[in-house]
Amino acid sequence: MVRKHAVLMASCVRLAVGALGVALGSAAAASDAFPSKPIVLVVPFAAGGPTDVVARALGQAMSKDLGQSVVVENRLGAGGTVAAAFVARAQPDGYTILIHHNGMATAPALYKKLSYDPLKDFDYIGQVADVPMTMLGKKDLPPNNAAELVKYVKDNKDKVTLANAGLGAVSQLCGLLFEEAVGVKMTAIPYQGTGPAMTALLGGQVDLLCDQTTSTLPQIAAHRVKMYGVTTPARIKALPNSPTLDEQGVKGFSMKVWHGVYAPKGTPPAVTARLTKALQQGLKDPVVAKRLDELGAEIVPVEKQTPAGLQTWLKAESGKWQPLLKTMKVEAP
């Protein structure tokens, strides 16, 4: 009886090991075959917007390395959370991925009922590029430099209007950071996207807008706005003669837009590794480098173009922004 039981147990073990081997073999085969069809790169913002422009340049370059099309799909709504939630629920096979900016770090503080956890519900592929921001004023705003702007804002306080592209937009975050730096609360005017906010500034309906160089460089070059400073600690290649806010007296002011690429949690490691390789190869593409350079964007160092690089950065940014937003009581209605 004992012998029969032992034989039965041994048979069960062999079957289990065999089944596991088949499963692992199938998973390995699937990973080896990846990708066998087009990949969807989900963008949380409108076509033609700053993140969309970066996504399309990157997707085209990644497709060359992957041997499959990378199709950009725009899913708008709720400061990027609609797109992030969609990807978090997607099949974890590498065929649906997300590109997102600082909003991945700020969403938990802005939305009480967030349906996903940015730190737990995604696998990481890597960072892409950093985009500096610029503080702009309407053409006839009296101040001529950042020092004069700070004085003007303090003298006029809530009479000064500050446009942004909506809740959670980087333009809103930059405005909040500027308010904290100068110690004055201005009147925020939210718009449905970067385009309408810029149109309002150009039309003189609002006084100020802080936004990405991907959107602001053409207006600066055409002298349609007043340029008060770059938001990064050092001057940028795209605007070498434009001083930073920090060097003009707004000490410690530092704000940039960063982009990362994510996959749903549970994506096979071999698949995420393949996507990371395609990301890194794509960022070496001279066409991509030239396009991002034209937009004032700066490709991140290769050590950040990795899952570990993105994960470390997201944790750090979450720790920076979430306490600030909660202190300032900024959240969705």
From TrEMBL:
<dbReference type="Pfam" id="PF03401">
    <property type="entry name" value="TctC"/>
</dbReference>
<dbReference type="InterPro" id="IPR042100">
    <property type="entry name" value="Bug_dom1"/>
</dbReference>
<protein>
    <submittedName>
        <fullName>Tripartite-type tricarboxylate transporter receptor subunit TctC</fullName>
    </submittedName>
</protein>
<keyword id="KW-0675">Receptor</keyword>
<keyword id="KW-0732">Signal</keyword>
<dbReference type="InterPro" id="IPR005064">
    <property type="entry name" value="BUG"/>
</dbReference>
<feature type="signal peptide">
    <location>
        <begin position="1"/>
        <end position="29"/>
    </location>
</feature>
<comment type="similarity">
    <text>Belongs to the UPF0065 (bug) family.</text>
</comment>
